[in-house]
Each structure stands twice: as C-alpha cells, then as structure tokens.
Amino acid sequence: MTIAALVDQIIAREGGYVDHPADRGGATRWGITTAVARANGYHGAIRDLPRPVAAAIYETVYWRTPRFDRIALRAPALAAEMFDTGVNMGTAVATGFLQRALNALNRGASDFADLTLDQMVGSHTLAALDAFLIRRGTPGERVLVKAIDALQGERYLSLTERRPANEAFLYGWLAERIA
Fold first, then answer.
1. Distance between CA atoms of 174 and 157, rounded to whole angstroms?
2. Within 13 Å of residue 62, how many CA atoms lie on the same side as its CB?
3. Among 13, 14, 76, 178, which is 20 to 30 Å from 170 by CA?
C-alpha cells in the first residue's frame, strides 16, 4: 500500500472538523490538531485546513520524518501499522513499541542484540528488524503487527483508567485502531 493510500485511510477515519470537549488535543481537521498544523506552517483556522495540506503533514511528520518509509521497504504491513499508531499516539511511541517487541522476540539476544529503547528508527533498529525478518519471514511481520496492536490496546486501556474522560474515545480506539 502506498503512503497516499495510507493517508487517504487516515483522513477518511479521522473525518473533517471535530472539536470534542473531552479531547485534550483540541479541535482537529482531517485528524490534524491546531498545534501540529501550526508547527508545519499552517496559520489559518483549523476548521479551514485544506485536505492537501493535511495529507502533506501526514506524509512528512508521520511517515518520512520517523523513517517509517524505511520500514515499509522491509515490512509494508508493519510500516502501515506504525503509521496508524504514530498518528494516534505519536511516532516515538509507535517506534518504542516496535523496539520493545523486537527485544522481546530476539530469543534472549541470540538473534540480535537488544535495542536501546530510544524511540527512533535508526540503523540499529533497522538491522534488528532485518535480522528478525530473515529469521521469521512473512509470519514474523504479522507477529510484530500483533505485538504493536497488543501494546497499543494496553496503552488505550491504561490512558482511560488514568483519565476517565477518555472513556468517550476508548470504544472507537479499540474498534478502529486495533486489528
């Protein structure tokens, strides 16, 4: 799947203008918050954010900058999951989930050394992913996607337990974000 198709899916899921009172991120358009829009050069009202501007932000901030495009060259389904997780939870969180999963699946560091949980897709994370995929193949990619989904689901529950106002979002998060 191309990044354009992934962005189209996200924008379709996030919808147009939303300003839910329980959302700490504030108003969004196409899923982009005012803060993210401003940080990326958009200075108009968030309700007027053009779709092409939102798409460009998604591709730059949530795909290329965190280097999920590099993961897509190796494991496209994993990259798609990380993109979706990164949009909803932050790209550092998504990368941290991958690093934790790789560490837990490296058979006691016999397949590759444990990664430092730096939440960045760098050469060590890519090398560990390569080693994992060589050993585990396509089924391994599916296992990593499941691991990230499991970590994501646990985080949603934990966030909701700590902040009951998030109950307004929990069902949708679990229904739409967890495969």
1. 9
2. 28
3. 76
Cα–Cα–Cα angle for 57, 60, 66, rounded to 5 degrees? 125
Closest residue by Cα to residue 16 from 30, 34, 33, 27: 30
Percent of the chain with pLDDT over 90: 87
Q: Say how far apart CA 143 and CA 133 lie, in whole Å.
A: 11
Segment 146-172, tens digit of pLDDT: 999 999 999 999 989 999 988 988 898
Say which range, 33-47, 80-94, 161-175, has the weakest mean pLDDT: 161-175
Q: CA 82: distance to chain centroid? A: 4
Look at residue 33 and give its three-state secondary structure: strand
Which tokens is 107 given? 């058979």
How far apart are alpha carbons 99 and 148 in whole angstroms?
A: 10
φ, ψ of residue 33 in degrees (nearest 5):
-80, 160
Tokens of 83: 């993109």
User: In the numeric block, which tokens belong to residue 120?
Assistant: 């960045």
149 three-class SS: helix
Radius of gyration of the chain, Cα coordinates, nearest whole angstrom? 17
Instruction: Look up residue 30 and give its amino acid.
Output: W
Buried b (16+ CB within 10 A) or exposed e, 118-130: ebebeebbeebbe
Distance CA(153)–CA(137), nearest Å, equals 25
